[in-house]
């Protein structure tokens, strides 16, 4: 069953067409890589899906439900969450406090003051930062700040995660570790779309790759097919290379 269906998505900023009639179908349990040269529209697609940008044309369905005009809060409540490119922890709160903040949008839980300590420990443990719950975000190494962002998204209890550049700024060992953690999410039933410029890390992780170029769909296939695709190579040669 399709979990996410993006149909004919177009997003214009004034005269600039950032995404042009783009469609994407994600099946339950898939890990799909969304790639493309700088400025090809990847983040704009995520922003449209999450309700951060109004859609110019097209529709977006999640679990069969039309979410095109929904607010971000409504979309998150329905089980779709995003890990942004930027980390934005609140430095006044500990790691645990930051995770707890993201459990508050759930109305039943917020009546009881958010998630319990056990639940927060559980979210942190899913991304291996449960021993850092008392630390302050500005004391953490970069990779743990990124893990905190993932833990915050997990705290909203998503069925599906959009991960925007999860490997950015990580070394090879950290990339391998994060890939293994993302694989574990899938084993526990999570569906994911991953945008990243680290092709090595991404290609090993994903089942399928979809390529955007100048806001247009360019290609879709297995990581091997995409690595060998001439059109994809040309698009990247015009940019930063595959
Ligand atoms: N809020 C905005 N206002 C105006 N133009 C925008 C806005 N957001 C994105 N764009 C433009 O839309 C196009 C697609 O940008 P987008 O950030 O989606 O690309 P991307 O593939 O995510 O790039 P990168 O890999 O560099 O993050 C670019 O030309 C960008 O300048």
Automatic annotation (TrEMBL):
PROSITE patterns: ABC_TRANSPORTER_2. GO terms for cellular component: plasma membrane. InterPro entries: AAA+_ATPase (IPR003593), ABC_AA/LPS_Transport (IPR051120), ABC_transporter-like_ATP-bd (IPR003439), BCA_ABC_TP_C (IPR032823), P-loop_NTPase (IPR027417). GO terms for molecular function: ATP binding; ATP hydrolysis activity. Residues 4-239 form the ABC transporter domain. Keywords: ATP-binding, Nucleotide-binding, Transport. PANTHER family: ABC TRANSPORTER ATP-BINDING PROTEIN, CONSERVED COMPONENT OF ABC TRANSPORTER FOR NATURAL AMINO ACIDS-RELATED. This is ABC transporter. It comes from Natrinema versiforme JCM 10478. The lineage of its organism: Archaea, Methanobacteriati, Methanobacteriota, Stenosarchaea group, Halobacteria.
